[in-house]
Inverse folding.
């Protein structure tokens, strides 16, 4: 993912303070999402190298991000986490509001935001580098911001108000990106002629901020309003050198993604609707959002790196469909055993995510089955088998740690 994240507290299926139970489907979906970050992507890529079979190649391709516009399965990982954060906060905040009041919910939201943001800064390297080579925004930072604003909105608005805010965020972002002019920052030669149609600058010092030529409605890399705001105003290290895919302006529609999860959480929380009907609604709403998002793509392209409004709908729709499928299998059909490893992972996503960053399960696997072991499998079986073994070992390490933490009821709760 550029990566992904997490909620910090087990999910309950009721807002009553007594005899609450977890919705296993939410934990399992969260773990399923994290699975691909912890090594599932390496597994699919290795299979792609081992076989020229079109199916294997297609699966491997789906576990890579699109370069810019478009959508693959791997582009769903991050927004799915944001969506699940929205689902989760409905249960956790409802319980707090009911038992302790909104002031307590506010304190919980702000405390979690601050702690998660600090963890995010640590994840990005902390102060291991000198300023300005420190990244202030990233995946976990965006999760923290989405949780903060979606949580506060949930505390003060009914679903109609939240729907209006969500629509306002998506339409407002589209209007800003389409209608607001900004300077053409592409470098120029001595005669004032633009050097390249594409923006090829590798640092902000090369950008032509003094340009009097205004452009608008562009969605190319570096030549859109969201990227321009990052280029001009976002301090510190930027992931893509001159702008950041988790930048300032694109956080607004990301909050919309979290609110879509809130709507799903409100549906799951209802007691007057059967689980089967909840599944039907999730699948129907999800399919409708996907269709609407791809229609909007004709004017406002689906682009993860600037989190376009069409991307919000497409990713949110697929997220709702996945949630519906997991809910049907786990809660309605009561078939849970297959999802046990996902539940282990989903109960401790922050711990595993940060641990993978600091330690690196794939790096540990390299120490165990890399080198000559990898070469042996490549030579005796086929090219790519060594990478497959490394991926399996990395995933195995992550699952063993997740199981250990889960069995001993060790959960990182911010």
């Amino acid at each position: 993912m550029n990566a992904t994240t997490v909620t910090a507290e087990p999910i309950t299926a009721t807002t009553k303070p007594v005899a609450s139970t977890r919705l296993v489907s939410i934990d399992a979906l969260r773990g399923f999402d994290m699975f691909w970050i912890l090594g599932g992507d390496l597994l699919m890529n290795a299979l792609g190298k081992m076989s020229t079979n079109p199916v294997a190649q297609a699966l491997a391709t789906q576990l890579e991000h699109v370069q810019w516009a478009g959508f693959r399965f791997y582009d769903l990982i991050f927004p799915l986490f944001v969506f699940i954060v929205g689902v989760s906060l409905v249960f956790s905040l409802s319980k707090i509001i009911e038992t302790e009041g909104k002031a307590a919910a506010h304190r919980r939201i702000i405390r979690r935001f601050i702690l998660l943001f600090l963890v995010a800064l640590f994840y990005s390297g902390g102060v291991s580098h000198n300023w300005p080579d420190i990244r202030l925004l990233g995946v976990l930072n965006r999760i923290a911001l989405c949780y903060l604003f979606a949580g506060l909105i949930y505390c003060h608005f009914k679903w109609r108000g939240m729907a209006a805010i969500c629509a306002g965020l998506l339409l407002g972002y589209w209007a800003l990106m389409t209608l607001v002019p900004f300077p053409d920052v592409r470098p120029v030669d001595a005669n004032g002629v633009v050097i390249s149609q594409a923006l090829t600058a590798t640092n902000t010092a090369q950008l032509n901020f003094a340009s009097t030529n205004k452009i608008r409605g562009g969605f190319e890399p570096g030549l859109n309003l969201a990227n321009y705001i990052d280029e001009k105003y976002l301090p510190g290290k930027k992931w893509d050198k001159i702008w950041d895919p988790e930048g300032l302006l694109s956080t607004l529609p990301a909050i919309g993604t979290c609110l879509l999860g809130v709507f799903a959480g409100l549906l799951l929380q209802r007691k007057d609707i059967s689980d089967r009907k909840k599944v039907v609604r999730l699948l129907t709403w999800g399919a409708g959002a996907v269709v609407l998002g791809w229609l909007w793509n004709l004017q406002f392209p689906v682009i993860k790196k600037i989190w376009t409004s069409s991307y919000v709908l497409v990713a949110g729709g697929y997220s709702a469909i996945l949630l519906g499928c997991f809910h049907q299998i786990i809660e309605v059909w009561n078939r849970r055993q297959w999802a046990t490893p996902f539940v282990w992972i989903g109960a401790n996503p922050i711990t595993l995510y940060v641990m993978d960053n600091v330690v690196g399960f794939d790096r540990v696997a390299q120490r165990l089955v890399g080198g000559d072991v990898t070469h042996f499998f490549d030579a005796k079986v086929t090219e790519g088998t060594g990478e497959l073994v490394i991926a399996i070992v990395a995933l195995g390490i992550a699952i063993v740690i997740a199981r250990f933490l889960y069995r001993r009821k060790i959960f990182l709760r911010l």
About this structure: Confidence is low (pLDDT under 50) at residues 1-20. The chain has two domains: 24-180+241-407, 183-215.
